[in-house]
Design brief:
This protein has 8 helices and 2 strands; from the N terminus they run αααααααββα. By secondary structure, the chain is mostly helical. α5 packs across α8 and α7 crosses α8. The protein is elongated and about 100 Å long. The chain starts with a helix and ends with a helix. 11% of the residues are buried.
């Protein structure tokens, strides 16, 4: 190795070593500053310490068949702390059920659902008769265009209310 190559190698090694030392120093400094800043936030910010439990609570719970699932009742943020369940308002008639639940799909024709009021889309279905429409609405239906979940996904709705909603959609399509 020539003298010139040795000199280049020594200078290059020195520069690389200096860059590594600076990088390690900056990394250590960043860790120290970040740790101190986070400690200050945790200790001094009231919102941070007060709401930790709310931010880390589970997002979902499972209901298991054959077990007591009463703890899974819908609760508000305040009611959850007090242990009080909140009742979900049941629609008074089929029109309200349609507006609250059915219109999510039948209002825009989502997932292959026939749009409410579309006479052409409903004609063949109406021709099958209301008992068939009631059965599909209550038990669910998987057709060529999409899937209808039982009771439109509103499983707590009574059967007669679902039938009223079907009657309302049929009336809109006639």
């Amino acid at each position: 190795m020539s003298k010139q190559d040795t000199h280049f190698f020594n200078v290059f090694s020195l520069v690389i070593g200096a860059l590594v030392a600076v990088a390690v120093g900056l990394f250590a400094l960043a860790r120290i500053v970040a740790s101190h800043t986070q400690d200050l936030q945790v200790l001094t910010e009231a919102d941070y310490s007060r709401n930790v439990d709310a931010r880390i609570r589970p997002l979902a719970q499972e209901a298991i068949a054959g077990r007591d699932n009463s703890a899974l009742a819908i609760q508000t943020a305040q009611g959850a702390a007090a242990g009080t369940a909140v009742a979900v308002a049941m629609p008074k008639n089929g029109t309200e059920l349609f507006e609250q639940t059915c219109s999510a799909c039948h209002g825009q024709g989502i997932a292959g659902a026939p749009r409410a009021g579309d006479k052409a889309a409903w004609a063949a279905r109406i021709a099958e008769g209301k008992p068939m429409l009631y059965e599909h609405a209550l038990k669910g239906f998987q057709g060529k265009a999409g899937v209808m979940p039982p009771k439109g996904g509103r499983m707590d709705a009574p059967d007669d209310l679902v039938k009223q909603a079907v009657d309302h959609m049929v009336q809109m399509a006639q």
